[in-house]
Amino acid sequence: MSKEIKRIAVMTSGGDAPGMNAAIRAVVRAGAFHNLHVYGINRGYEGMINGDIQRLEPRNVGNIIHRGGTFLKTARSKEFRTPEGRANAYDALVAHDIDALVVIGGNGTYTGGMVFGEEYDIPIIGVPGTIDNDICGTEWTIGYDSAVNTAMDCVDRIRDTAESHSRTFFVEVMGRHSGFIALSTAVATGAGRVLIPESTEGALDRTIDFLKKSMKRKKQFSLIIVAEGNPFGGASEIADLVSTAIPAMEARVAVIGHLQRGGSPTRIDRIIASRMGYGAVEGLLNGQRNVAIGLINDELTFTPLKDAINNAKPVSAEMMRLAEILAL
Predict the structure, then answer these.
(1) pLDDT tens-digit readout, 174-199
(2) Is 7-143+265-310's fold the same as 145-261's?
(3) What is the DSSP string of 223-245?
(4) Integer Cα distance of 87 and 84 in angstroms
(5) Is the separation of the CB atoms in 310 and 194 below 8 Å?
(6) Which CATH number fits domain 145-261: 3.40.50.1110, 3.40.50.460, 3.20.20.140, 1.10.3720.10?
(7) 301 pairs with which residues across the strands?
(8) Which of 281, 270, 300 is nearest to 32 (CA)?
(9) Cross-sheet strand order for the sheet of 124-128
(10) What's the whole-model pTM score?
């Protein structure tokens, strides 16, 4: 029989994402509703190893739902990847009589949680907190909508300059391993082309052909969205390649960078984070363990952590086709 859960801990790990605070708030308040003791682990797995753990009451998470980042802080931990580090982390949880964990983060956070849960037989639920939206088992990750909205706002502003000066802008957005942010930004801003990690071999040539045709029909400006992890290089490298192929084109580069991580979460991210944080607590109390919570067809679901980690989440072929058709 599983041990009765009376004390749970919540932590954030990896890259920060808008909405993480809303998820923490939901975990704490849902836990309080069920008369659980809830603890916050500062600085992710590194804080767990060091015993940087504090009791959280509902009042401790007041006035944070609208704040970006994570008030529990985050860090990446090399020590947690070692058996000795995980042993120290477990000792810290035992010292606080913690029965279960809610870990908020991305693939690396899930991997650490899965290994830890298997080694020490502790129930763990992962909550997808990453702007990249690349976690399998959920249609939305916390922070994705906010990141796209930030990128969209930046590209809208760049469009004003591009149009005023009749220039082509190559705008680099985040996405080392997936093109969700870039693809959504391209569709939302009416960009001419988008280059993402999933781009096929001829994507750069098609972009050059598109720009040549645009110049022939006297199009005044163009916007090309570039995911940082696309196979052809960063926005600056691509701009140089295109300029070599089209010497008459006046190109500029803009890198949005970490602006996409910060700022207040959108309405969608606040609601998603709240639902997932609440769902994680409910899941633990209903016997779920070593799973990731997700949202599919607007319903909360649970996916084994190993599947959420190992299964790839492809970008939408329909969205790719939409981006190309609407750019004509």
Answers:
(1) 999 999 999 999 999 999 999 999 99
(2) yes
(3) EEEEETT-TT--HHHHHHHHHHH
(4) 5
(5) no
(6) 3.40.50.460
(7) 294
(8) 281
(9) 53-56, 37-41, 7-12, 100-105, 124-128, 291-296, 299-304
(10) 0.95
Question: Hey, what are 127's tokens?
Answer: 């909550």
Joined together, the tokens standing for residue 187 give 């569709």
Q: Phi, psi (5° rounding) for residue 74?
A: -145, 160
pLDDT tens digit string along 127-143? 999 999 999 999 999 99
Provide DSSP, 94-122: HHTT--EEEEEESHHHHHHHHHHHHHHT-
Which residues are catalytic, by number? 132
For residue 215, the model assigns a pLDDT of: 86
Q: How many CB atoms lie within 10 A of CB 316?
A: 13
Q: Which CATH architecture best describes the domain 7-143+265-310?
A: 3-Layer(aba) Sandwich (3.40)
* Domain range annotation of the chain: 7-143+265-310, 145-261
Nearest to 281 by CA among 24, 14, 16: 24
pLDDT of 59 higher than 50: yes
User: What are the Cα distances from residue 181, in Å, to 103, 175, 215?
Assistant: 23, 7, 27
Of residues 125, 106, 222, the one with CA closest to residue 175: 106
